[in-house]
Each structure stands twice: as structure tokens, then as C-alpha cells.
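Appendix B, record 7
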Amino acid sequence: MMQHFLLVDDNPTFATLLERGFSRRGLRLVWAQDGAAALAWTPAPDGIILDLNLGTESGLQLLPALCRQFPQARIVVLTGYASISTAVSAVKLGATQYLPKPADVDTLIAAFSEPDLPPAPMVGELVAFQPSVRKQSWEYVQFVLQRHGGNISAAARALNMHRRTLQRMLQKKPAAR
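C-alpha cells (predicted):
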């Protein structure tokens, strides 16, 4: 029985490449460019690949609706702007895996067969890895931006910085460590 997967991403080039890669492995991948198209998809997919940045939409806001619409589907969140805060939020909202871009086809397929991510550690538990100040500030900016629904102006006000300064920060690559 052929497995069916749903890709929710606003990038047509990326979607075409993934569709080709999945079909070479005997899997069917269909593409939804936005949340409305994803929620209208039938039949229910076996797995969903969800991008966090869908143009004007947020994948985090779409995630609970996808979980309700397709309760049996495993959801892998894929993002070019990976951070700890978005990973924790995605898992809390129902994602079973969280991968940073770029991710190749084999990595994506493997993510559907891996066990679900463990729940987020409780506050106060020891963490072996301590990120740099630069990484922590990037993650805090992402957290504030998420809290304000992706609204850069509102997040900039909350961070007490100019909107253009925040936009420049967001255009840069996130800190590695």
C-alpha cells in the first residue's frame, strides 16, 4: 500500500523537488501551498510536512487545526529558522518531529519512522548544553515574535527596539551555538 504524504509549504521549487524525491522512493507527496488547501485535502495523509513560515501564515497557528483534521497523521515541522522556543511550541501543539532546513528526502522520510520527540524538559532540570549569549538572544527574539503572532512591529515594541532593527536581525542567519 502506497503511503500518502502532504507537504504544506509556500515554496513551489522546494515542493517540486520533494515530490520528485518521494516518488522515486515509491511514496506519494501532494503539495498544499497554504493552510486552507491543506485542511481541504482528502483523503487523510499518513504524514504531514509543515513549514513554519507560510508567507503570511504561521505554521504554528495551523498546526492545531491539522492535528484536529488529521488525528492519525504524524506531523514533521520543517523550518529554515529553527530555534528551541519554536521547537518546544511545535511539540506542545502536536508535532511529532522538528527538523531544520535544509533537510533531504531521506531525512524527512526517516523522521516519520522515528519515535515521537520526548516531551520538553521541565523547568529546573539540568541541561548539558548551554547555548551562547548570541544564540539565547536569537531564541528570545523568536519567542517574542511568536508571542505577537509574527507581527514585527508589535514584537519590536515589546523588545524596546526599532522595527527596522528587528527586521535586519531577522534577515540574518540564526546563531549556530
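Remarks on this record: The chain is about 45% helix and 15% strand. The first strand starts at residue 4 and ends at 8.
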